[in-house]
Design a protein that fits this description.
67% of the residues lie in helices and 0% in strands. The protein is mostly helical. The mean pLDDT is 85.
């Protein structure tokens, strides 16, 4: 492979030196990256119409909604932690426990939505990992300290 690569590099270098790349069509013009060259041509027009109208395919909108719901849940639990810190009065402990329970229920619901989203996503690259409740709560507490 090294021999082939060095031969290709040699030919490219010679072509550059001979000026073979100087007058290519589109030289000096911007490269438009808004179109995906790997996109199915049958869906290209549909995706362009959706994008121009401010929408995205349903599975992308679903991911945005999942992320927004998780962010709202984290914000709510962060506020609860600042109000009902551990070591406080007993009513605070009960309120903190209630907030943790609500967050846990939210995460369970989001994990179910993530399972469905992962089935809709067009590639494994776009799959979303499930949310670990204990880690999320520990991260919120650690960040609030």
């Amino acid at each position: 492979m090294n021999r082939l690569e060095s031969m290709a590099e040699k030919r490219l270098r010679e072509a550059i030196e001979n000026g073979e790349f100087d007058n290519l069509p589109g030289k000096g013009e911007p490269v438009y990256l808004s179109e995906n060259p790997f996109e199915d041509p049958d869906l290209r027009v549909v995706h362009r119409l959706l994008r121009n109208a401010g929408f995205a395919p349903a599975w992308i909108e679903e991911r945005k909604d999942i992320d927004a719901s998780l962010a709202a849940g984290r914000t709510k639990l962060t506020r609860a932690w600042s109000l009902f810190r551990e070591g406080g009065k007993s009513p605070s402990q009960a309120e903190w426990a209630r907030s943790v329970k609500e967050f846990t229920e939210l995460v369970m619901d989001l994990n179910q939505r993530i399972r469905i989203y992962n089935l809709k996503a067009q590639s494994d690259v776009f799959h979303r990992k499930h949310i670990d409740v204990k880690r999320a709560i520990a991260a919120i507490i650690e960040d609030a300290k």
